[in-house]
Amino acid sequence: MKLRRKGTEMNEAYEAYNESIQKGVRAARALIDRISEGEGTEEERTARLSAAIKNADAILIGAGAGLSTAAGFTYSGERFSEYFFDFAERFGITDMYSGGFYPFPDEQTLWAWWARHIYINRYVDPPKPVYEGLKALVSGRDYFVITTNVDHCFQRACFDKNRLFYTQGDYGLFQSADGRDGKTFDNEEWVKKAMAAQRFIPDENGVFRVPKDRLVSMRIPKELIPKTLDGKPVKMNLRSDDTFVEDAGWHRACRAYTDFLAKHESGKVLYLELGVGGNTPVIIKFPFWQRTLTNPEATYACVNYGEAFCPADISDRSICINADLAEVIHRLK
């Protein structure tokens, strides 16, 4: 009975999550024809956001890739050059994102790439304390976070893990390639072994660095190619197709998210959208619009460099700040 009830609750949470997305899509179709960028100077809008945070009964944070970019987690530039200089020279790869789709010649090279990619985007702290600043803003408040990011930055900044919903996966998890077993498993130990096998050396803080002679390997030993416990091929637990595993932890977080939504159907709710672009608007942006529209006490805030806007129908209860997220969070603190 207990297992059956648990399964039913998980299904109900999943259906509620999907319904929130569908409601958002339906609302967006009606709202998106009339778009507003808000009014007032950047300073005035920041002041309004500060007041909205202080006065909110609850805060729902929706975080996209722009938040991690503001924290210094860029996929090109110095970080890429430091850890992937040899892949750039040999294969002509120019950034980490495109490298994730490169047809490497063998599995040993493929997993050498992914070990580095996972390591610096999952097991190393971001260069800037943006997440810590955000945590200080909502500390002691009734908040929840839904994010499409897969870099674990919220956990590394010590956000309450019971208030987090990572919808698109986690760099720190592997799953079977076909996803049929419905399970995931941690990859930290494997990542560190694979980094050491490529001759990266831990510094005084335990962070793997390129050795002074810059002689690193672009392949890992065959015995280090990751497999499931029963020897099957694995891949990253990242949503890309219908093989993505929504494991027990995913469903627990989904339940926590839908419970938060149900608890705050009304009242002074701040829907705080941070760095959400146009790739996955159905998960965060559209549902935030819809819930702001149906709750006259709600406030929608969008902080996004180059993409801060809202439907005109809710512009009187919206705050759009077109600025660098790191700077805005610093000013809010």
CATH class of the largest domain, named Alpha Beta
Strand runs, count: 13
CATH topology of the largest domain: Rossmann fold
How many separate domains make up the residues? Answer: 2
Write the layout of secondary structure elements.
Elements (H helix, E strand, L loop, with lengths): L1 H30 L3 E2 L5 H14 L2 E6 L1 H6 L7 H14 L4 H4 L7 H16 L7 H9 L4 E5 L5 H4 L7 E3 L2 E8 L7 E3 L1 H10 L3 E2 L5 E2 L24 E5 L9 H16 L5 E6 L10 H10 L4 E5 L6 E2 L6 E4 L3 H8 L1
Describe this structure in words.
- The protein is α/β, with parallel strands linked by helices and 333 residues long.
- The protein has two domains: 2-70 and 129-170 and 246-332, 3-Layer(aba) Sandwich (Rossmann fold), CATH 3.40.50.1220; 78-125 and 188-225, no CATH class.
- The chain contains twelve helices and 13 strands.
- The protein has helices at residues 2-31, 42-55, 65-70, 78-91, 96-99, 107-122, 130-138, 153-156, 188-197, 248-263, 285-294, 325-332, and strands at 35-36, 58-63, 143-147, 164-166, 169-176, 184-186, 201-202, 208-209, 234-238, 269-274, 299-303, 310-311, 318-321.
- It has a six-stranded parallel beta sheet, sandwiched between helices. Strands 6-5-9 form a three-stranded antiparallel beta sheet, with helices on one face. It has a two-stranded antiparallel ribbon with strand order 1-12.
- Helix 11 (285-294) links the parallel strand 10 and strand 11.
- Helix 6 (107-122) crosses helix 9.
